[in-house]
Amino acid sequence: MADRPVLQRPPAADMVWLAIALVFLSSSGPMIAACAAPALAIALWRCLLGSAATASVVLTRSRHELATLTRRELLLIVAAGLLLGGHFATWIPSLRFTSVAASTAMVATQPVFAALIARARGRRIPVQAWIGIAIAGVGVLVITGVDSSIDSRHLIGDVLALIGAFFAAAYVSVGEHARKSVSTSTMTMILYASSAAFLLVTCLVGRQPLWGWSWRDWALIVALTVGAQLLGHTIMNKVLVSTSATVVSTAILFEAPGAIIIAAIALGQIPPLALIPALALMMVGVVMVIRSGSRDVPMETSPI
Q1: What's CA 250's distance to the chain center, in Å?
Q2: What's the total number of domains in the chain?
């Protein structure tokens, strides 16, 4: 069994990088909520632009790796991309039904689902993780209760965000196998392209318009892609060289309070006071899951 990860203080430079990354990540939910384009179309363009951006790197630096990918590696990446597409197709629409606070909090339960998936695959889950899952579950129930008391439509958003968290965990569980032998840039290009293909079909089936919006909406989509998608998680991956995955995974949780602050200032979305203790309870539970984790429980540290 792998040693239990320890939360050690990161180098000063990494703390600065983490803070910058969190600003980009925290802006994701508020920007999506502010964008008038259809949610599925936002997801499509985010993945398509992300794939195009990473393709410029892969085609100039990693063409040999791209040409020598095995069938298994390619299938794993495509499967992970389809799951990532499912994540975007559920989490982004959730912001049309519920608040940024509730949506980002719900999707932050990804480590809980990662632990449950690992257990379903026969891996051992520490007792502390089960306690954390129970605490996070109570927090989720309280959030949904508060949300439904405000507006019954909020409950739809909560459920969509939770499904999005599950898809994110499933994506990590599949993608971790490909990451062992494929570089981040090559995997990201194929991953986002697969997600974009899935989302394109979803948009066409759902008859969602793919363009025709204001320049402001296009600017928000580009900013979302460059900020949260390419810079935020790229920086998170950068600090993994000298900072443990446990610290990085824990840091990502602060995307939720960051998004709440940005949404309150920029959008006037001030969460009800009853939601704050539930958010704190849920975050405590998720932190317990992350801290109790081992190599048996994959945690999210790459683009999502």
Answers
A1: 13
A2: 1
